[in-house]
Amino acid sequence: MNIVNSAITGNEVPAESESPYSALINFYHAFNHQDYDSMQSNWLQTAAASMSNPLGDVKRGWEEISEVYKKIFSGAATVYVEFYDYSIHTTEEMFIAVGRERGLLQFNNEKIELAIRTSRTYCLHDEQWKQLHHHGSMDDPKKLNHYQSILINGVNS
Fold it and tell me: How far apart are CA 74 and CA 45, in angstroms?
């Protein structure tokens, strides 16, 4: 297993447009630039897609997942994350990226450092990698509560 410690920020230039690495670059570019159209393009547009992230609950289908990104992208807080300490496990039609995200949430004059355990599952759909599932967990309960309060309610806890 190859563990990669250099971060994916979304600003990298992909070597191959159809590689798992490129799909991850496209995700982090969409997220860190709050680009909803690119985010939508990164995800599988069916009811099979699912997400369990630090904002809580399980979202099923692109319609539910898209609401999470709309809320993050249109809120008063700014969130930046990069993917590091990861491995990519591939088959011909799927890959799973398992690693960590570090980043920053900025809200008003406050900055919160983020540390999230993350996995992303992609499937090959119409010859393109599409995100099928995301799972993210934060280990620090106080930081998780603060993160949720800001992004869900737009308030400091």
Answer: 21
Q: What is the pTM of this model?
A: 0.90
- Cα 36 to Cα 43: distance, rounded to the nearest angstrom: 11
Q: How far apart are CA 134 and CA 118, in angstroms?
A: 7
3-state secondary structure of 2: coil
Q: Distance between CA 14 and CA 11 in Å, rounded?
A: 9
pLDDT tens, 27-74?
999 999 999 999 999 999 999 999 998 777 899 999 999 999 998 899
Considering the domain delimited by 20-153, tell me its CATH architecture: Roll (3.10)
Closest listed residue to residue 131, CA positions, set 32, 49, 46: 49
